[in-house]
Specification:
- With 337 residues, the chain is mainly beta.
- The protein is built from three helices and 16 strands.
- The protein has a single domain, classed as monomeric porin ompg (Porin), CATH 2.40.160.
Length: 337
């Protein structure tokens, strides 16, 4: 038991010390791959993104992969998020136990933004042509219960970005833990997200052909400029969950999470979920940051769980306030069998 306690202590220490240089204004707007920070799934989103110690099963693959260790059957999750500025975020996740080894899962997250008009210095109102952009994250997850109180989880993600003919790719790793002390209905969790090397764009859009003379038959001089490498937005979350009420058919869980970011001010997240007969759910949350002109605030949502023979069907919805843009909406379908 001592070595298992040591693992937990080292995990907590590593997450806590990694926040030392985070949470400042100097690096705001200097990272790329910001789509990694866009949340997915209605349940955790409706609770203000405070589900790091609360989420379980396939839903936990995004919030904290250690929570997926509770899974006892095969689960599928489909989610669509209507994000700001007409951006759609589609998310798929699947997970199942693999004997005594643990739980394996796969995830895919895709952003679509439609076509954009091409403008140049000569044609600032548009050339009549368009280009498209796409961003995707594909991941492989593993979660395992170490003891009846401790679980760990890891996500390994492959990142891909394309803007017109320019592309960038990279990798990112999430590492999480979950600890249930066994008293006062408390659960603690922590996760380090988006650990990975810098990314860099390349493609024919960086090519430049310069005329070498006045002779129309002379070949231009071709050069290719280099894009600057950029970091991905890593952050740390530490949180807790508490079952405040467990009376007959009514259950109330409250959650809280501190998020320390390396490219913006830190965030505080809080949420609650009311469950009636484990079939009907109401959720709410709030996100706070001292960052100037912070976009997000209160969140709300609801859910319905149906047993269809040997299959469980969950339908969840979430709404999130967004200043200066249309408010966000999340729609999620989850199947367990």
């Amino acid at each position: 038991m001592r070595w298992k306690t040591l693992i937990v202590a080292l995990a907590v220490w590593g997450i806590w010390t990694s926040t030392a240089s985070a949470g400042g204004d100097l690096k705001i707007g200097s990272s790329g791959a910001q789509y990694l920070r866009i949340p997915v799934g209605s349940r955790g989103s409706a609770m203000g993104g405070s589900a790091v110690a609360f989420s379980e099963g396939v839903d936990a693959l995004y919030w904290n992969p250690a929570g997926a260790s509770t899974l006892t059957n095969t689960d599928l999750l489909l989610s669509r998020h209507q994000y700001i500025a007409d951006i759609n975020v589609d998310y798929f996740a699947a997970a199942r136990p693999i004997g005594e080894l643990g739980v394996m899962g796969v995830t895919a997250k895709v952003l679509s933004m439609g076509d954009e008009m091409i403008t140049t210095t000569q044609s600032p109102d548009g050339t009549g042509e368009t280009y498209s952009s796409s961003f995707a994250v594909v991941g492989l997850s593993f979660a395992r219960t170490l003891t009846d109180r401790v679980a760990i989880g890891v996500n390994a993600n492959l990142l891909y970005e394309k803007i017109a003919q320019q592309t960038a790719s990279g990798i990112a790793v999430d590492v999480g833990f979950r600890y249930t002390p066994g008293w006062n209905n408390l659960t603690f969790g922590g996760v380090i997200k988006n650990l990975g090397p810098k990314m860099k764009y390349d493609g024919p859009g960086f090519d430049l052909n310069t005329p070498t003379g006045t002779d129309p038959n002379s070949l231009p001089h071709g050069t290719r400029s280099q894009s600057t490498a950029f970091e991905i937005p890593s952050y740390v979350q530490l949180g807790g969950a508490y079952k405040a009420i467990d009376a007959q058919k009514s259950i109330v869980n409250v959650t809280g999470t501190f998020q320390s970011n390396n490219f913006s001010q830190d965030e505080w997240r809080a949420g609650a979920e009311y469950s009636f007969d484990k079939k009907f759910f109401l959720r709410g949350g709030y996100v706070y940051s001292s960052q100037k002109d912070y976009l997000f605030g209160p969140t709300f949502g609801a859910g319905l769980s149906l047993n269809l023979g040997s299959t469980t069907l969950n339908l969840d919805y979430a709404w999130s306030q967004s200043d200066m843009f249309d408010n966000d909406q999340y729609f999620t379908l989850q199947l367990g069998f």
